[in-house]
């Protein structure tokens, strides 16, 4: 009964890993037809990408191993076909694009050639292949396609690279396009553009689109149907609307609940002296001005969100404040005293008051240290905080504070999941009992559910310990329920500065409006609305 | 890659052509090291002498190493003692140099002055030191040498003086000109030197028309080359490789010995020195580490040398007595337990290291406290020549080569209290040396052999070890029998072709 | 990607590997790579020889006996230690090889450890401090690199006497640049990592950052190089002996034995063969072990061994 | 790129100068050339005279001044022993070494890259095992040992090749073969390692997803990326060869700079030592620049 273009039946894949055998997917089944878009929704480790890799024959065996199931394409079981036959399908009838296009494009070849190669690999003559490549680069909206043909991946922006990937995948007009987290690494505005590009192309070619994502918003925006995966199982499936309004499975509900930007907004209520004043802060690399004079104040116990897309200079502010880079100009007054001009020695004692939580918890924790060492290092450096005798108890206390177990203290970072690692990073920051914690994209690398938990944790700490936060993020919804003030940045400048309510309910600047519009909402209906807004905006501003 | 191969080929084509392709009556001779120069006045250096002596350059007189005719005429037809201090040489006529100029007395004078000049350091000049020698041209073909003091063996000394034309500048040359049967036709540094036969040679033309010299450091490679037919003669190969019927051994006039510095205790004690001598089982080396035919030495010079003393007998190996002697010395308060340093030179001769290792263990057996140290040549020189290392007793293992037939070339230098490498300061020895040097005829013979006996039996000047043999490998299509002189020269005229 | 995702969650769930089981795990991973396992065993034997050999066999190895000169191998009537034959002075080869192991290992280990410590120390400084100091150090490295090692050997061994210690000195100096350059390159990369930044934010001293945070990360690389270098140094030492520089009798190393035995290759092959074999096997073992380490120390490759371990263990 | 080359040139000059200074003074600490040059029984005045002629009597610092003075006029001084300009002697020898190094490295690179890639693609399979073990055995044997065995076997026993020396292409085979072994083993390992990493990288996944055949996946997509680390190693190995393959040159009587070096060191022929060091140092500098260029050609990210 080959009534579907592509059908996965009872597929089970397992991997041999350091920790033994892992069943990545267990007997999952789904199908996809021409012209429709199926979303596989799941968080990291849910096995959402495994079936795709299986279809494309990209699972290395070992360590991978397909233990059961069929993959029917046009009614034929791919798993029974020869390597060569499957190669012939790849790129010709089934194509795939990936997250992180920079890594997935070969750094040492011109993009033009890489796109054309898809065609050449399937026997198209060189000139025709290049002709198609050029046409597609034009179609996916690469500026000056002719010249761009000879450029290399590193010479393009993130969004353009993803467009190039798409072009590469569509050279031979495949029947199916698999997009694995195609927009995750991208800025919100770019994400929206890429998604709509995919839709247009789908309409043109009538291909089936398999969209693998962790983002409910993406599902709401683009999918016709969706399956929700957890721990290698499909827990629920249906149209976005069904899933949003009548979610059956608790996990699905959890996901929906976790989606940011739904809770109550805060109203700042402090009027005493600010603990931090940033005045005309500037940074330039050679001739390029990354930060063009930024000003803001921060009151004790308050949270300031700094929002902007990549290259807006939001992280630079943090790095300058903490002496990770020298500033080119301006002042930073911490409790009244200027700290930019301080020497490392003078800075030493102050550092414990200003702490930072980094974006990628995997990298910000030293893999060679145990959790205990990582946290207690704070007191090795600042012995006056705590006598050695109390370290053990304090570490346990901190771990519990951030929702981990005391016995975790003896493990190494790699034995934790991303979210847990970020909690450890937070515990490390707390160990110094700081007055201000700067969170640089502290949650953007985390799954939505984890994101929600971590933000909740931070909020709780703020209320309990009265710590002030600077919360740096690239999309607005995340900060909506958490911040008191919001600073919107673009190209090294503050575009708009206001209370969270003002920013979200009455954005004054076009850029802010566009940001808001570009943010994807998990409610299909809201999202549909947003979409029309976005298009309207684009029209007016174009 | 292919290309680079081709280029390499091209490059090679331009370089010296391989011996294998040279025409008939050509021989290839493989030597241990390439000479830095091909300079007649350096001919006493063996790697130069082998190429130059008797081939490119000739001397007035030459020592007969095959028969026993003693000193034979070469460029000089005859010589006589005009008075005590003056020798007169009659020169051969009708001899031309390879550059066409004719040979006459002026050339001899110039050659001598050039050799003695202080603008270049000619090795052969060292044989004329300490004597005032003035050559004076009598006529075109007669020359007098006046010496102060009288120099009985001047004709022998002149067997070392290579004759160059009077036009030769007083600086080292790379294009040697001589009266010899051959002329150097090509020198590709690092690869080969080629000699061509001269048609206008005064004497009878030798059989070999072209001689090609190549250089390989490793003895086994040299041996292999002859075996593989890439070379015809390898004048010195290692005894270990000398196992085929192509190989001939020859006394190479080298004598190995342990030089003892008598000035440092306990080696200042005669009993200790005797113990040293009888503590070494010399016989055991022959035919094992060292080649068959190696002789146990009783003198620093080989038996064919003038005045060699047949009555002195090698001391037999006697460990018991050696121990006893040491005990005795010890009883008299001689510090026999002091560590004695035995210095050997790596690669001095084939099996050098093994030899010294064996000696060390033998001497330790009889109760010496010996430390062996093998050193490279420069360091060896530090120990070998004065001023000596004084802080501890030292035995220097060394080799001495004198194929010139007269002890004069060795004795002053090795045993006179003034000698640069003399371990002894003995009045009687000094006196004997001075007298013998000045003496002639039987008196000279008597004095030398007295000295030999005295040094060996009375003084026990040093621990004499062996008269060494060298090994030559000669290819099947040439005939050549190595002689005692093969170490220092190799006259192509002595090579026959089959 | 898929794999790491899955293993990620698993890690979070399953129990942490207890430090105790570390050794067992290493052995299991060794066992997974049979060649590496054998190599490790062989090296263990060599080390034992090096430590205890001279104690028991010194005299036998030094006793010359010209009657047993070049005694052929595989004959027992002269005693077990003549199983590999005798050398040019009739000394039992087996005994000599065992005794020589000590010097050989001392030279190699000494040189490698010394150069590794000095080299990586300089590398850390060059990588972490200001660029002027760094530049200076790098130039120094260039000089050492283009300084002909033979000349260095002659100079050192001439001015100071030729001894094991001095040979170690020579070899160590010539190897320093390798570690220096690698360390510096790695430091320049690692110092940009987040956890180093985090340490700075906490106010950690340079010393602490370098030794607590950077060094542990680059150590595996250095160790891999070291194992390879160990082999290299052994060969270098033998070449020196061949050229008549370096260690001289009555001291013995394998390299020296080979170069002394080479002239007998045609008449008594075993003189050069056995010590040569010892060198080959040791260097090979080290190579195998280091390529095993390269996988074992690389998290993305380790599974190859771990599966093996499961299959075989 | 240009400015970088400029910097490199300057810094290399600095190191070269330091090198010369060190070699000049240190080598003069290693004994009196006269003692080596002249026969042992040469008299003291003869030695004095020799030192006089070669200016060895002046204080070392004066000698150094003189040397540098000449050097700036590109006069590298005379060889003590050969009575020729040192630079001629060195260049003569260097040509040989250069060819030896070039040919060997060319062969090594190609062989190691091909075998290494295939091994990496079959990690753990027989081919991989055999390749690495064989290369290891070769790389682990002392080179002089291999060289002599080689001569005994190929030249003496079977007479296939000339034992040693120069002349025909055949004369090059044994030396190159011996030199080949060690760098081959090393580079093979590097290639294998970096290929394994590259094969695991995302862009290979992409290529597979595009339906590219295995061969181009290895030799087009992976290899070029994997080459980057390899090139550096090739450079180092080539540098080592340019410094002269002393052992091989000595055994095969190959008139290269390595043999020249060891000879002049043992004979304390200072000018030749210095000239040799300078020539090789410059050659290596030039080669490193070639390496950089190759690097830039392979990796566009460096160009911009």
Provide the structure class of chain A: alpha/beta
Structural class of chain D: mainly alpha
| SS strand fraction of chain D | under 5%
CATH architecture of the domain at 35-46 and 86-258 in chain A: 3-Layer(aba) Sandwich
Output the radius of gyration of chain A.
Answer: 25 Å
**Termini Cα gap of chain D:** 9 Å
Biggest chain-to-chain interface with counts = B-D, 57 and 58 residues
Helical content class of chain A: 25-40%
The largest sheet of chain A has its strands arranged as 6-7-8-3-9-10
Task: Give the CATH H-level superfamily of the domain at 35-46 and 86-258 in chain A.
Answer: P-loop containing nucleotide triphosphate hydrolases
Taking pLDDT < 50 over at least 5 consecutive residues as the criterion, the unreliable ranges of chain D are none
The number of E-state strands of chain A comes to: 20
Name the CATH class of the domain at 35-46 and 86-258 in chain A.
Answer: Alpha Beta
Multimerization state? heterotetramer
CATH superfamily of the largest domain in chain D, called what?
A: MetI-like
What is the averaged pLDDT score of chain D? 84
Q: What is the number of domains of chain D?
A: 2
Summed up, the helix count of chain A is 22
Q: Main β-sheet of chain A, in a few words?
A: 6 strands, mixed
Note down, in words, how this protein is organized.
The complex is a heterotetramer of chains A (542), B (498), C (313) and D (304). Chain A is globular, with a radius of gyration of 25 Å. Chain A has 542 residues and is an alpha/beta fold. The two termini of chain A are 49 Å apart. The model of chain A has no long low-confidence stretch (mean pLDDT 86). Among the domains of chain A are: 35-46 and 86-258, Rossmann fold, CATH 3.40.50.300; 274-353 and 434-511, P-loop containing nucleotide triphosphate hydrolases (Rossmann fold, 3-Layer(aba) Sandwich). Chain C is mainly α and 313 residues long. Chain C has a single domain (23-312), classed as Orthogonal Bundle (MetI-like fold). The radius of gyration of chain C is 23 Å and the shape is globular. Chain D is an all-alpha fold and 304 residues long. The mean pLDDT of chain D is 84. Chain D has 14 helices and no strands. In chain D, helix 1 packs antiparallel against helix 13, helix 9 (202-209) packs antiparallel against helix 10 and helix 10 (214-242) runs antiparallel to helix 13 (270-298). The chains are: A alpha/beta (542), B alpha+beta (498), C mainly alpha (313), D mainly alpha (304).
């Amino acid at each position: 009964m080959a009534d579907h273009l592509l059908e996965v039946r009872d597929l089970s894949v397992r991997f041999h890993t350091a920790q033994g055998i892992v069943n990545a997917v267990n007997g999952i089944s789904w199908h996809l037809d021409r012209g429709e878009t199926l979303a596989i929704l799941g968080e990291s480790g849910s096995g959402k990408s495994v079936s795709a890799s299986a279809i494309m024959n990209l699972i290395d065996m070992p360590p991978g191993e397909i233990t059961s199931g069929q993959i029917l394409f046009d009614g034929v079981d791919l798993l029974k076909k020869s390597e060569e036959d499957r190669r012939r399908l790849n790129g010709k009838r089934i194509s795939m694009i990936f997250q992180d296009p920079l890594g997935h494009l070969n750094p040492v070849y011109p993009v033009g050639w890489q796109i054309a190669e898809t065609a050449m690999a399937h026997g198209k003559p060189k000139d025709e292949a290049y002709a198609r490549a050029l046409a597609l680069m034009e179609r996916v909206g690469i500026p000056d396609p002719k010249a761009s043909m000879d450029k290399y991946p590193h010479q393009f922006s993130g969004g353009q690279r993803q467009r190039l990937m798409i072009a590469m995948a569509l050279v031979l007009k495949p029947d199916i396009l698999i997009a694995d987290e195609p927009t995750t690494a991208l800025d919100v505005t770019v994400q929206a553009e890429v998604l709509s590009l995919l839709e247009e192309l789908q309409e043109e070619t009538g291909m089936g689109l398999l969209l693998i994502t962790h983002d409910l918003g993406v599902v709401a925006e683009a999918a016709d149907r969706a399956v929700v995966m957890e721990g290698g199982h499909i827990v629920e499936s249906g149209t976005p609307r069904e899933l949003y309004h009548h979610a059956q499975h608790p996990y699905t509900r959890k996901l929906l609940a976790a989606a940011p930007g739904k809770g109550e907004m805060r109203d700042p209520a402090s009027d005493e002296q600010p603990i931090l004043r940033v005045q005309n802060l500037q940074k330039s690399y050679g001739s390029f001005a990354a930060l063009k004079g930024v000003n803001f104040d921060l009151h004790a116990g308050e949270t300031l969100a700094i929002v902007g897309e990549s290259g807006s200079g939001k992280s630079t502010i943090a790095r300058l404040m903490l002496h990770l880079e020298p500033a080119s100009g301006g002042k930073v007054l911490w409790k009244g005293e200027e700290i930019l001009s301080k020497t490392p020695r003078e800075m030493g004692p102050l550092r414990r008051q200003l702490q930072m939580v980094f974006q990628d918890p995997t990298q910000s924790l030293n893999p060679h240290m145990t959790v205990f060492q990582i946290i207690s290092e704070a007191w090795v450096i600042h012995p006056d905080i705590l006598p050695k005798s109390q370290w053990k108890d304090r570490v346990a206390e901190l771990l519990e504070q951030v929702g981990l177990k005391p016995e975790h203290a003896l493990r190494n970072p790699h034995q934790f999941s991303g979210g847990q690692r970020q909690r450890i990073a937070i515990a490390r920051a707390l160990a110094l009992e700081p007055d201000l914690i700067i969170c640089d994209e502290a949650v953007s690398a985390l799954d939505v559910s984890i994101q929600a938990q971590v933000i909740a944790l931070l909020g709780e700490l703020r209320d309990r310990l009265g710590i002030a936060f600077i919360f740096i993020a690239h999309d607005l919804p995340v900060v909506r329920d958490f911040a008191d003030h919001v600073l919107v940045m673009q190209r090294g400048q503050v575009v708009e500065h206001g209370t969270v309510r003002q920013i979200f309910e009455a954005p004054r600047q076009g850029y802010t409006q566009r940001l808001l519009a570009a943010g994807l909402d998990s409610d299909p209906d809201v999202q549909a609305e947003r979409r029309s807004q976005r298009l309207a905006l684009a029209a007016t501003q174009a | 890659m292919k290309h680079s191969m081709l280029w390499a080929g091209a490059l090679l084509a331009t370089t010296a052509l391989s011996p294998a392709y040279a025409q008939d009556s050509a021989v290839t001779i493989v030597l241990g090291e390439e000479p830095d120069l091909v300079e007649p006045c350096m001919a006493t250096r063996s790697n130069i002498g082998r190429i130059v002596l008797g081939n490119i350059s000739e001397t007035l007189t030459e020592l007969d190493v095959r028969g026993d005719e003693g000193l034979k005429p070469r460029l000089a037809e005859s010589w006589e003692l005009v008075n005590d201090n003056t020798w007169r040489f009659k020169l051969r006529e009708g001899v031309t140099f390879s550059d066409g100029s004719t040979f006459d007395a002026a050339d001899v004078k110039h050659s001598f002055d050039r050799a003695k000049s202080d603008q270049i350091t000619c090795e052969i000049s060292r044989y004329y030191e300490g004597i005032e020698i003035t050559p004076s041209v009598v006529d075109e073909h007669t020359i007098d040498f006046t010496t102060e003091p009288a120099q009985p063996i001047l004709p022998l000394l002149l067997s070392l003086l290579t004759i160059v034309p009077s036009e030769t500048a007083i600086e080292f040359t790379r294009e040697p000109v001589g009266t010899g049967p051959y002329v150097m036709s090509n020198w590709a540094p690092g690869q080969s030197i080629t000699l061509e036969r001269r048609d206008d040679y005064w004497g009878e033309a030798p059989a070999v028309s072209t001689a090609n010299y190549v250089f390989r450091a490793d003895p086994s490679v040299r041996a292999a080359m002859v075996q593989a037919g890439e070379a015809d003669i390898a004048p010195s190969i290692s005894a270990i490789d000398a196992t085929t019927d192509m190989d001939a051994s020859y006394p190479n006039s080298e004598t190995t010995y342990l030089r003892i510095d008598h000035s440092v205790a306990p080696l200042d004690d005669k009993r200790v020195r005797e113990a040293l001598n009888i503590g070494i089982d010399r016989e055991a080396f022959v035919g094992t580490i060292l080649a068959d035919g190696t002789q146990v030495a009783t003198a620093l010079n080989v038996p064919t040398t003038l005045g060699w003393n047949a009555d002195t007998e090698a001391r037999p190996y006697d460990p018991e007595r050696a121990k006893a002697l040491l005990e005795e010395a010890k009883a008299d308060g001689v510090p026999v337990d002091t560590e004695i340093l035995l210095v050997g030179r790596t690669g001095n001769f084939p099996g050098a290291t093994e030899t010294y290792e064996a000696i060390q263990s033998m001497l330790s057996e009889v109760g010496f406290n010996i430390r062996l140290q093998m050193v490279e040549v420069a360091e060896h020189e530090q120990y070998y020549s004065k001023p000596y290392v004084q802080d501890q007793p030292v035995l220097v293992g060394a080799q001495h080569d004198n194929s010139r037939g007269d002890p004069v070339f060795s004795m002053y230098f090795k045993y006179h209290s003034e000698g640069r490498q003399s371990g002894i300061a003995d009045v009687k020895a000094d006196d004997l040396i001075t007298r013998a040097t000045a003496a002639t005829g039987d008196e000279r013979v008597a004095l030398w052999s007295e000295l030999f006996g005295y040094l060996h039996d009375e003084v026990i000047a040093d621990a004499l070890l062996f008269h060494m043999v060298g090994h030559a490998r000669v290819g099947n299509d040439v005939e050549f029998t190595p002689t005692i002189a093969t170490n220092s020269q190799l006259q192509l005229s002595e090579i026959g072709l089959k | 990607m898929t794999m790491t995702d899955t293993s990620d969650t698993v890690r979070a769930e399953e129990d942490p590997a207890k430090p105790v089981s570390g050794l067992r795990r290493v052995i299991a991973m060794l066992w997974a790579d049979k060649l590496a396992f054998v190599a490790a065993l062989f090296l263990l034997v060599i080390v034992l020889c090096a430590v205890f050999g001279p104690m028991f066999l010194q005299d036998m190895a030094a006793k010359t006996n010209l009657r047993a000169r070049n005694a052929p191998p595989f004959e027992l009537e002269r005693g077990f230690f003549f199983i590999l034959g005798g050398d040019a002075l009739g000394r039992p080869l087996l005994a000599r090889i065992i005794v020589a192991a000590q010097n050989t290992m001392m030279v190699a280990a000494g040189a490698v450890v010394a150069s590794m410590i000095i080299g990586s120390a300089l590398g850390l400084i060059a990588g972490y401090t200001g660029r002027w100091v760094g530049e200076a150090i790098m130039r120094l490295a260039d000089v050492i690199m283009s300084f002909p090692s033979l000349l260095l050997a002659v100079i050192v061994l001439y001015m100071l006497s030729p001894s094991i210690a001095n040979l170690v000195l020579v070899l160590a100096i010539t190897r320093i640049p390798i570690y220096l350059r690698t360390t510096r390159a790695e430091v320049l990369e690692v110092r940009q990592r987040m956890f180093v930044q985090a340490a700075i934010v906490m106010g950690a001293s340079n010393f602490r950052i370098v030794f607590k945070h950077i060094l542990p990360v680059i150590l595996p690389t250095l160790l891999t190089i070291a194992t390879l270098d160990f082999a290299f140094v052994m060969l270098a030492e033998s070449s020196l002996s061949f050229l008549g520089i370096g260690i001289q009798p009555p001291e013995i190393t394998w390299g020296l034995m080979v170069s002394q035995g080479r002239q007998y290759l045609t008449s008594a092959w075993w003189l050069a063969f056995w010590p040569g074999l010892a060198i080959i096997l040791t260097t090979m073992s080290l190579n195998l072990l280091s390529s095993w380490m390269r996988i074992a120390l690389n998290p993305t490759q380790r599974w190859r061994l771990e599966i093996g371990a499961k299959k075989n263990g | 790129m240009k400015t970088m080359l400029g910097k490199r040139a300057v810094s290399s000059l600095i190191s070269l100068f330091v090198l010369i200074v060190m070699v000049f003074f240190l080598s003069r600490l290693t004994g009196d050339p006269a003692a080596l040059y002249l026969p042992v029984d040469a008299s003291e005045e003869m030695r004095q005279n020799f030192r006089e002629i070669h200016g060895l009597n002046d204080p070392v610092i004066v000698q150094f001044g003189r040397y540098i003075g000449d050097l700036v006029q590109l006069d590298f001084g005379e060889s003590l022993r050969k009575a020729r300009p040192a630079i001629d002697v060195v260049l003569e020898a260097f040509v040989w070494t250069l060819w030896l190094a070039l040919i060997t490295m060319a062969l090594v690179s190609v062989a190691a890259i091909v075998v290494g890639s295939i091994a990496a693609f079959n990690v753990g399979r027989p081919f991989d095992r055999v390749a690495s073990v064989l290369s290891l055995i070769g790389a682990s044997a002392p080179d002089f040992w291999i060289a002599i065995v080689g001569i005994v076997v190929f030249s003496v026993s079977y007479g296939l090749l000339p034992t040693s020396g120069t002349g025909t292409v055949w004369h090059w085979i044994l030396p190159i073969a011996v030199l080949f072994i060690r760098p081959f083993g090393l580079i093979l390992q590097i290639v294998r390692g970096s290929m394994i990493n590259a094969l695991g990288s995302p862009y290979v996944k992409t290529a597979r997803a595009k339906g590219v055949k295995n061969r181009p996946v290895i030799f087009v997509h992976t290899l070029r990326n994997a080459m980057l680390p390899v090139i550096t190693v090739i450079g180092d190995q080539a540098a080592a060869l340019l410094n002269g393959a002393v052992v091989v040159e000595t055994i095969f009587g190959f008139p290269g700079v390595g043999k020249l070096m060891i000879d002049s060191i043992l004979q304390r022929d200072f000018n030749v030592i210095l000239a040799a060091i300078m020539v090789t140092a410059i050659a290596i500098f030039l080669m490193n620049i070639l390496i950089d260029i190759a690097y830039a050609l392979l990796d566009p990210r460096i160009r911009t």
